[in-house]
Amino acid sequence: MSNYHLYDIVRELYEDEEVTDVQSIYKDIGEYLINSDKLNNSKSFELGESNINIDLSKDAILVCAWNKERFVNALLNIGQNVGNLFEYDKINHMATYIYPIGLTIVYNGNHSTLSGILKGEGTIQANQTYDLVPTYDYMYFDGIYFRNKMNDEKLYKVARFEIGALYEIGRILAENGIR
């Protein structure tokens, strides 16, 4: 899924289309769950600050470069090919790692991070981590909606099917002890 997302972003930038920001595209897993009053949130799934290293050449990362000029500038000026290696900047590069699906969502430093991903070089650190495992006791994805596991109530219509599918893949990974 991550590569398809990147291709869409690059195509949108190239064609001067408006690029939707990561927070609005991927709020299904993040923002909604964090702010939900419909779930039994007695078990927090926010693990807090983190320093998980994310390899831009191989890890699953969702990033959204929203400005064509900044993206082109990052491509032209960052990378081994121009003698200016990608460097992680704790103040600029910010990301959330979501366990157990192993997905990182970048929410700051998008242009340089996307350049690093496309060039297959560099690492960043996820500065916060979420563990979805506690939510599996309370909700599930039915293909269209997240639903309350106790009473089958519709909690939220998923904007992107892939996010709901990833959520359920995470459930399978957790149930089988796969990290």
Share of residues in helices: 25-40%
Amino- and carboxy-terminal Cα gap: 19 Å
From N to C, what is the helix and strand string?
HHHEEHEEHEEEEH
Structural class: alpha/beta
What is the number of strand segments?
8
Domains counted in the coordinates: how many? 1
What is the averaged pLDDT score? 80
Main sheet properties: 5 strands, mixed
- Shape call: elongated
Radius of gyration: 17 Å
Count helical runs.
6
Q: How much beta, percentage-wise? A: 25-35%
Q: Catalogue the unreliable spans.
A: 38-43
Strand order of the largest sheet: 1-5-3-4-2
Pfam families: DUF6710
At a glance:
With 179 residues, the chain is of the alpha/beta class. The chain is 32% helix and 25% strand. The two termini are 19 Å apart.
Describe the structure.
The protein has one domain (2-175). The radius of gyration is 17 Å and the shape is elongated. By secondary structure, it is of the alpha/beta class. A hairpin with a 3-residue loop joins β6 and β7 (145-148). The strands form two sheets. The protein has a five-stranded mixed β-sheet. It is built from six helices and eight strands; from the N terminus they run αααββαββαββββα. α4 crosses α5 (110-119). Helix content is 32%, strand content 25%. Residues 38-43 have low confidence and may be disordered. InterPro entries: DUF6710.
